[in-house]
């Protein structure tokens, strides 16, 4: 294993020194991503927006004061008829003046409105949902960054192994060419080595291109400047610690979000019921009014240019009596919404429990495979080294060397795959057991 770490670290040194690259540890990527990720910034804005929503609903409980100005031109003024017996007439007919105007202030303030009180509770629940949505998005970002970082590390590890294999085949190529020049090998042996060497170089170029794409995607996820070059810290497989299997966490954000949705649906159902309760408002007005038969009289002193003041306070009681059964059907719909959320809670919990059981099984299997594939890879290296020494001494044929080289490459690929699967399974169990925050502390 020390040989693998030496090869991988040796490969990473020129990579990190070229072009003033920044070497980022996983913790650095997580901190940068949490701070800079554009999608996460949008979720933080939603939290701020939700807090404004609470203040908005509270403002409805405060007095509402509005100013107003009215001007009327009664082209054909109406008349009012009153009892005229005091004046010796059966009726007294009065003509309204053609022009009237008024200006003032109106006050309205809820004294009791259960619907408004419930709307504040709903706003608080929605604010909590915004917070949970942000935390869920943050957790998803941590998982995404970790997976991409692990993939980049594994690809860099694969590049180091391919580079070491190229060095071995170049040595084999030189030996075979010398054998051929001295009549100890056939031309077809030289061609076989050249074919394998070219295939390895193609694999090396493909892996390099893949690593570049993975690093670019990682920079996008954490919103790192695209023009800057980055390198990853080499992985040490000896320091990978298996996750503690503490069981499925009850505080997963998926479950908390559904619980908040259920609470919101129940509050909305209550709000519909509160629509049957009377509401009481305080009302008030303070105004000036003026009347005249000629508009220009308002600009002259005299009785017709006088403004009359009036003000008063009152209570307004609203009593719902019949709404065409609207609230009844809204209540029934709300009940169905609550039942659907309960079903979603049960389904999500069972799904997460299944994920946990499968991940636990995968962890044991991948941990075992990782250890076996690592041993197989190191064993295949030793076998290839022995076969190469025997070929150098002229004891073993070229066919055996190439067969062992192929087995070694296959063992290396299996090791790389097992390594990545083991780390991803470990990561998923950190999430399901509620220990994902340990990665950013």
Automatic annotation (TrEMBL):
Q: Which UniProt keywords apply?
A: Cell outer membrane, Coiled coil, Membrane, Signal, Transmembrane, Transmembrane beta strand, Transport
The membrane spanning regions, by residue number, are none
Q: Subcellular location, in the record's words?
A: Cell outer membrane
The family database entries (Pfam families) matched by this protein are listed as:
OEP
**Primary localization class, coarse:** membrane
- One GO term describing the cellular component: cell outer membrane
Which Gene3D superfamilies does this chain map to?
Outer membrane efflux proteins (OEP) (1.20.1600.10)
* SUPFAM superfamilies, A to Z: Outer membrane efflux proteins (OEP)
Question: What InterPro entries does the record tag this protein with?
Answer: OMP_efflux (IPR003423), TolC-like (IPR051906)
- List the residue ranges forming a coiled coil, or say none: 190-217
Q: Name one GO molecular function term.
A: porin activity
- The secretion signal range is 1-20
PANTHER family (alphabetical) = OUTER MEMBRANE PROTEIN TOLC
Which family would the database say this protein is a member of?
Belongs to the outer membrane factor (OMF) (TC 1.B.17) family.
Protein's recorded name: TolC family protein
């Amino acid at each position: 294993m020390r040989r693998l770490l030496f090869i991988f670290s040796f490969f990473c040194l020129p990579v990190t020194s070229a072009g003033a690259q920044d070497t980022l540890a996983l913790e650095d990527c997580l901190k940068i991503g949490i701070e800079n990720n554009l999608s996460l910034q949008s979720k933080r804005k939603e939290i701020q927006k939700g807090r404004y929503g609470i203040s908005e609903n509270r403002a409805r409980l405060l007095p509402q004061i509005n100013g107003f100005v009215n001007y009327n031109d009664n082209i054909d003024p109406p008349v009012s008829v009153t009892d005229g017996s005091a004046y010796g007439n059966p009726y007294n007919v009065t003509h309204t003046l053609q022009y009237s105007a008024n200006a003032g202030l109106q006050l309205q303030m809820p004294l009791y409105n259960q619907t408004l009180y419930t709307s504040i509770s709903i706003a608080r629940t929605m604010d909590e949902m915004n917070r949970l949505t942000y935390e869920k998005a943050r957790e998803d970002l941590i998982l995404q960054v970790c997976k991409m970082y692990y993939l980049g590390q594994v690809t860099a590890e694969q590049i180091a192994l391919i580079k070491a294999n190229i060095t071995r085949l170049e040595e084999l190529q030189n030996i075979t060419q010398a054998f051929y020049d001295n009549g100890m090998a056939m031309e077809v042996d030289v061609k076989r080595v050249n074919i394998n060497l070219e295939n390895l170089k193609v694999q090396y170029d493909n892996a390099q291109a893949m690593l570049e794409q993975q690093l670019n995607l990682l920079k996008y996820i954490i919103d790192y400047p695209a023009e800057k070059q980055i390198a990853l810290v080499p992985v040490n497989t000896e320091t990978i610690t298996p996750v503690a299997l503490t069981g499925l966490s009850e505080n997963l954000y998926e479950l908390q979000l559904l619980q908040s949705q259920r609470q919101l649906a129940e509050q909305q159902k209550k709000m519909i019921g509160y629509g049957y309760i009377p509401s009481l408002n305080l009302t008030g007005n303070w105004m000036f009014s003026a009347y005249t038969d000629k508009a220009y009289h308002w600009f002259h002193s005299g009785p017709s240019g006088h403004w009359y003041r009036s003000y008063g306070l009152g209570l307004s009681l609203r009593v719902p009596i019949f709404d065409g059964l609207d609230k009844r059907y809204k209540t029934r719909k709300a009940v169905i919404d609550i039942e659907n959320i309960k079903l979603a809670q049960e389904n999500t919990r069972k799904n997460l429990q299944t994920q946990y059981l499968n991940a636990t099984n995968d962890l044991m299997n991948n941990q075992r495979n990782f250890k076996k594939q690592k041993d197989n890879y190191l064993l295949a290296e030793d076998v290839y080294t022995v076969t190469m020494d025997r070929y150098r001494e002229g004891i073993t044929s070229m066919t055996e060397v190439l067969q062992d080289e192929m087995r070694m490459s296959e063992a290396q690929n299996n090791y790389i795959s097992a390594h990545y699967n083991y780390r991803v399974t470990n990561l998923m169990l950190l999430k399901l057991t509620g220990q994902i925050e340990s990665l950013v502390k």
